[in-house]
Amino acid sequence: MNLRLIGIGAGVLIILSLPLAGAIAGPDFAGQDDGKGGGLLSSLGLSDPSRTPDTARSAEGAARPAQPGPAEQPRTDSRCGPELSSPHGVEAQTCVLESEGQTWGRSYYRNTSGRILDAVLTVMGPAGRTVQIRCAVGAGDEPGLCETPRGESVGKPDDYSAVAEFAVPDDEGQLLLRSGSNSPEPGDG
Known about the structure:
12 strands, elongated, Immunoglobulin-like
């Protein structure tokens, strides 16, 4: 008797699911509408043939402007020196960057010396133009960066260079590392 009830229940479920299956099926594979206006996508307002690329439907069916994608980021050109390290636990690489008519300097660093350091980053450009910034370099293994303000580019990108100097912030100011955007590769003489 239990098997008969299970069989009858399964048959009823199949019969009841046929209209749902037809609604989900919607248009055939050839793209022809089945005449019922069905289909899961159209029932959700997602396959409306009158929809244009400039509009999208909200859940209520009202047209709203399509959301633009992320803005394209401007290209940034960089000219970097080699990654350098000192026996005192300081690693750095210094670059000159240029984008949209502006030039600036950036130094990437890691300080494993165990003490707080000072970094001075200087960008030198044509006609004696110089920009300099001082950055506090915390003690620790986390990478960081020091960056000058951006300035209007003058001349060619090769007319610019940057130098970062990492030193102990005391009366002696012991220099631990100097890193430049045009430093020769180690072993280049």
